[in-house]
Amino acid sequence: MVTTLTFVGTASCVPPPGNDTACCLLNGHLLVDAGWCAALSMLRCGCDASALDHVIITHCHHDHYLGLASLLFYRSMQRARLPQDASELRIIGPAEDIAHVVELARAYLQGERFPAVQTNPEVVAVTPGDTFVAGEFEVRTAPVQHQVQGLALRLRDRSTGVEIGISGDTAFRPELAEFFAGVRLLICEAAAGLSDPPSGTQTGHSGVRQA
Asked: What's the distance, CA 50 to chain centroid?
C-alpha cells in the first residue's frame, strides 16, 4: 500500500488558466478544500470526483469552498456510476461556518425544483483541536491565525503510517511547528511569497521564509 497525494490546484484566490485555487486529493477519495472548479480540475489530473467520500474544508473563504456546488452537481449527474451502497458525501469543516456554507451550496443547485440534483451530504462541524476519522485517515486539527475560523490538519494514513501536514491559510504561528513535527510531507501556505509579513499580521498569510 502507498499513500498518494495529488495537487489539484496550487494557485491563489484568482487562478490562471490550467490551474485552480489551492486544493489537494489524498488516496483518490479525500479532497482537502474545493477550488473554483474542483470537479473538473480533478479530471484534468486523471481523477474522478465520483470516487470522493470525504471533503475537508480548511476554512470558509470563497477560494476554498467555491467548488462545492459544482462538486455536488457533478456527483449527482454521475450518480449511476456510484456504487449502489455508496453513502452521501461527508463534508467536514470549521464549526463556525461549515453548515451554513454547505446549505448555501445546496440551495444554489435548487434541488427542490430539480430532484435529479437533490443531495444531502453529511456535514461534520469541527472545532480546532478536535480529532476525527475520515476513511483510513486519522485527522488531528489545530487552530490557525486567519480572519475566519480555520483548521490546520495533520493526517495520518493508518494503512501506511504516512503523516501529511496541511497548514491551511495562516499567518506565522510558531505553535504549528510543534503540531507538524515529524510529518513526512508538509504543505504550507506562503501567499506572501518572498516578503516577510510581521507576526500577527491581519492578512492571515505567511511568506516562504516563515513557512
From this structure: 16
Q: Using CA atoms, how far apart are residues 209 and 47, in angstroms rounded to an integer?
A: 33
Q: 53 exposed, middle or buried (CB, 10 Å; 0-12, 13-18, 19+)?
A: middle
- 131-134 sheet: strands from edge to edge: 131-134, 137-143, 151-157, 163-166, 185-187
| Residue given cell 475566519 in the structure block | 148
Q: What is the pTM of this model?
A: 0.94
| pLDDT for position 85 | 65
211 is written with which cell numbers?
513557512
Residue 23 φ/ψ, nearest 5 degrees: -160, 150
Q: Which residue has 510531507 as its cell numbers?
A: 185
pLDDT tens figures, 176-201 = 999 999 999 999 988 888 988 876 55
